[in-house]
Structures are given as structure tokens and as C-alpha cells.
Hints:
The protein has six helices and eight strands, in the order H-E-H-E-E-E-E-H-E-E-H-E-H-H.
Amino acid sequence: MWFFRLPPLVYLVLAPLGIALAAYLYIDDRQSEADKAAARAGKPPAPVQIEKFDPARNTGAAQEVNVIGQVDFRQAMELTRSKRGVERDRWVMAPIYATTATKPEGPAIGLMIQHGSIADAQIEGMVVAEGAFGPILRLNGIAVDRSSEAKAVEEMGTRVSLSPTALLVDPFEAGRAAGLAPSNSGRDVALGALIVSLLVGAFGVFRFFSERNRDQLPDAEPEPIV
């Protein structure tokens, strides 16, 4: 395999870069878990109509939001990502409009973007009223950074006009407690990156000294011809 035939210096450069990446992932994960712990210790943000949503005032710890909006499920779409025939990711997305909107016209001011599938029971549990063209839901979940779901948002944007400032909400599929529960997945990824980086560094050191020792071996002298 080509990776194991690179010059030793390449491994010695990649190893510290990988260790730095592992440290960044670990610190980011610990901060995320601390934010979730702070959110669990408090109450969810007060419900607010999505047309009145102010990120500075209506976003809680761990990027938790609690908005009420009119969801147009007629424009909903499901997006999957597969690799070698195996499904790797799935989203269910639907545009969100103002609670007072009478038609799904103009750019949507929000987007429900839920990982995995969405059950009818979950939707029914979020309904607070019926709008002019869709149910009005209370969406308690996490505000999603647009850049982290760029592919899904881009795909949705080909079918529905989205406001540049649209709020992306990933609702708590199994409830707030489950959605904010502690997770070791980020820590495990960071630990895996650290182990791989250390192995790469060790392999680079081995290659460096084995090649140096080989270069220092004296050339074999030809045997005299009798």
C-alpha cells in the first residue's frame, strides 16, 4: 500500500498534526458536553414564534431553541447519503413559515432538519394548532449551524426558497432529556485520532532508524578470484 512507502519524514510530520487534531476534537467535545450539562440543569428556552425569533435572546445553552412555526410537510423531502451501497446518513427536512402565514410563499424562515426518520407520533406530539396550510408545531431542539449541514441545505434549496437567515432546527426526536443526554462519541473519535497519530509517529521513527542503519552498513567487498 502506498501509504507505507512514504519517506519517514512524512510520518514524522503527520503524527504531530494528528495529535493536534485529536486535542482539538477532545477540547471541542468536552465543551459541547459541558454546554449540554448546563442545558440539562436548566429549563428549555421559553417558546417563541419563529417570526419573532432572536438568536441572541432565544437561544439557550448547547444551542437549544424552542420555536413555534408552521411546517409545510407537502414540501418535505428525505435525503440519504450512502457509501458502497450502505446508508451512512439520513435527513428529513421540511420548510417552516410564520405562524400567521396564509400561503407557503416567499422564502421559508426556518427549516426542520432532523437526522434519521420522523414518526407520525413525534409530529403529533409537537402540534399546538392548525395553520392555514400546515400544522403549527413547537420545535424544541438544537439550532443547527448551516455550514455543518451544507449538503442537505443545498439539496433542500433546490426545491424550496430559504431565507439567508433561516433558522435550522433539529428537534429532539426522543424528547429533551434524550437529546441532551451525555455522549462519549466525540471523546471516542478524539481518542481514535490520537491512537492513529501515535502509531503513525512510531512507524515513522522505525522507518527513519531502519533506513539510517541500512545506509551505514559497509558495502560488501567482492571475494578475490583464486
